Amino acid sequence: MDRPLSDVVVLDLTRALAGPIAGRLLADLGAEVIKIEPPDGDLTRAIVPRVDGMSAYYVQYNAGKRCVSLDLSRPEGRDVLLRMVEKADIVLENYRPDVMGRLGLGYDVLAAHNPRIILASVSGWGHGNARSNQGAYASAIHAEAGITEMVARRRGESDHPRNDPMSHSDTYGGLHALAAVLAALHMRDRTGRGQAVEVSMAESTLVVNDMAANELTGQDPMTGFKGGQNWSAIYPLRSGRHVNVTIDATTRGGFGMWCKATGRPELADDPRFATEEDRVANRGALEAEIGRWVAGFDTAAELEAAIGVSTVLAAEVRTVPELAATDWAAERGAFVPIDVGRGNEVTVPQAPWRFSDADSGVKPFAGFRGEHNREVLADLAGVDDTELARLVADGVISDRVPEWRGSGRDR
Q: Do residues 165 and 279 both lie within one domain?
């Protein structure tokens, strides 16, 4: 079955995460994605753990891409890339905003070689403003965009904020870049012209913060039906596992539900829990009372059945490997093993879409740095063996492919 973007060629110059996730998803949609790395490679190749020399982190966001290593700081490397641009549809990059121009690869140069090219740029703060040239890692954006403070405040940890282990700003930026690229492709179908689109990690983080507008009111009510998920308490089960229950016990409806479910209407007569304000002030004591009842159940399913309210869910706290081992994961095909070498595999999450009349999903291979130099450069830039040898000798292109892997595999 055909894939939605099977006629699209992408030159992916991105590194780390914000750009590579967009490239991975374009590949999942069928695009031919060429990852173009500098001689020292994508820094995420060094992240542990590694399987047969391949970083699992790197594999998750670069599976399905053919890999070329090309030094774009050299005029010869720039010229090779521009020859590739003539046959490409999209260029992805996540350098600081001035880097493409300094390399002689700004949009005006790319468009002169291919007027239909789309240049998609992901940066921390966007182009053309006072913060454009600031570096951007996810933790820095989280700190600046209110995420770190808001989480610490909601957890009662304002005196000692902690970083989230997940790189939300990077992934949000990449997902918004994907949307922008698809919109630009659609517009090109109408106009025949490409364009430059740029996405900032900061704005991507703000737009997915479902409580940003609440924060901007300057109000922080402690009672009533509140947004956010931190009000869903987590309780220990008799089995030793933990369960998340999707209701705030301090609200009128939530408290009434728990009184009925636990068979303890007398809780309403407890002065600690008489009003919403009382229940908020004594949240810990209220959740302890509920927790003693919850601890009588072995599974989330048993607890949910006992609560008996369709809008209240009880969800077991699982690890990623535990979810991967469930029937749901198998039925959905939610995880995919990627061959990284001598029979060893790295398992990555599958793309979330399913089409009624098209194929999609991760292409189950991952390339070492420069593994596909010969085949890609011959196909997209017309580089013959003589030129290839000269570029290798001059250090313009390089590779780091294990001997057991060979000189590259045609994918």
A: no
Supply 343's token pair. 């029979």
The CA distance from 61 to 44, in Å, is 10
- Number of structural domains the chain divides into: 2
State both tokens at 39.
């001689």
Res 80 pLDDT > 80: yes
List the CATH number of the domain containing 301.
3.30.1540
- Amino acid present at 35: K
DSSP β-bridge partners for residue 242 = 236
CB 179 within 8 A of CB 152: no
Average pLDDT for 204-216: 96
Q: Do 335 and 371 belong to one domain?
A: yes
- List b or e across 54-67, with b for residues whose CB sees 16 or more CB atoms inside 10 angstroms: bbbbbbbbbbbbbb
Q: Name the pairing type of β-strands 314-316 and 335-339.
A: unpaired
Largest CA distance in the chain: 88
Q: Name which of 23, 19, 16 is nearest 58 in CA terms.
A: 16
The SS3 of residue 28 is helix
In the chain, count of helices (H) and strands (E)?
18, 13
> Hey, is 205 helix, strand or coil?
helix
Question: Based on C-alpha coordinates, what's the Rg of the chain?
Answer: 26
pLDDT by residue (tens digit) across 122-168? Answer: 999 999 999 999 889 999 999 999 999 999 998 889 999 999 899 99
Residue with tokens 């300057």: 218
Q: Is cis: bond before 75, omega within 30 of 0?
A: no
Shared-domain flag, residues 250 and 388: no
From 316, 343, 368, the end of a domain falls on 316
User: Which candidate, 372, 370, 368, places its Cα nearest to that of 399?
Assistant: 370
Q: Give backbone dihedrals phi and psi of 352, rounded to 5 degrees, phi first.
A: -85, -10
| CA distances from residue 307 to 224, 245, 251, 254, 407 in whole angstroms, order as listed | 22, 10, 16, 11, 60
Secondary structure class of 305 (helix, strand, coil): helix
Q: Look at residue 406 in the predicted model and tell me its pLDDT.
A: 62
Q: Tell which of 281, 316, 351 closes a domain.
A: 316
Check if the beta carbon of residue 192 is closer than 8 Å to that of residue 117.
Answer: no
Amino acid at site 95: Y
Q: At residue 232, does pLDDT exceed 50?
A: yes
